[in-house]
Amino acid sequence: MMNPVKFGPIEITSAEFVKSAVSLKGLPEERLPQVAFLGRSNVGKSSLMNALMGQKSLVKVSSTPGKTREMNFFKVNNRFFLVDLPGVGFAKVGFKKRDEMGDFIREYVEKSKDLRGLIYLVDIRHGGTPIDVETVESIRATGCPVLVVASKKDKVNQSELAKNLRLIQQRLDLDAKPLAVSAVKKVGLDPLWQDILDAVNGKELVEKSHGDDR
Question: Sorting pLDDT into bands at 50, 70 and 90, what band is 99?
Fold first, then answer.
């Protein structure tokens, strides 16, 4: 039993790992809304998901980029799932395995009836790489709502923050600068939770101004 953790729009009273899957056949049988997280390997995805669920090690944080090779499902408040997807880009696996990972992620995004949207993390220090651009465009092409979030805000100063948020907005063709978050400093978690809950409740994920470059 975990101690409840309060964020602006939600109190987390329970968060548990349910299962891993490598195909649609392995998805949880319980029909609850799902919001998935994706990003390049080493973007801080696992750390952010732990911070959002008020946990330290529920989502395994690996020192080896690309180690996560399955979709991992975590049930929150018995109401919905947060889904940890394998990192894209330079995962240290063979090409055949990498192609298989890409195929089942694509199949999940295109065909899962419970997926309400996808949070795509971009390392704020890099301003949006070609791999980020290609991946986000591919997700958009499936029709799945995708929200770009800039991770590792604690790793840049104010001038770098403003510059790189603008770069991410331009390179990924966003309607507004992305929300900047830090799992280490617990920054940006309240507005990100609001976006997640909006998706869970049937609203479309959209960029909105957060004033993070001021």
Answer: low
pLDDT bracket for residue 104 (50, 70, 90): confident
For residue 48, being part of any structural domain is answered with: yes
Concatenate the DSSP letters of all residues of the chain into one string: -PPPEE-SS-EE--EEEEEEESSGGGS-SS---EEEEEEBTTSSHHHHHHHHTT-SSSSPPPSSTT---SEEEEEETTTEEEEEPPPBSS-SS-HHHHHHHHHHHHHHHHH-SSEEEEEEEEETTTT--HHHHHHHHHHHHHT--EEEEEE-GGGS-HHHHHHHHHHHHHHTT-SSPPEE-BTTTTBSHHHHHHHHHHHHTTPPP------TT-
Q: Which residue has the tokens 């309400």?
A: 116
Please give the Cα distance from 22 to 48 (Å, whole number).
Answer: 22
Position 53 in a domain: yes
Residue 63: pLDDT band with limits 50, 70, 90: low
What is the residue range of 191's domain? 5-200
Over the stretch 144-166, which tens digit does the pLDDT of each residue have?
Answer: 999 999 999 999 999 999 999 99
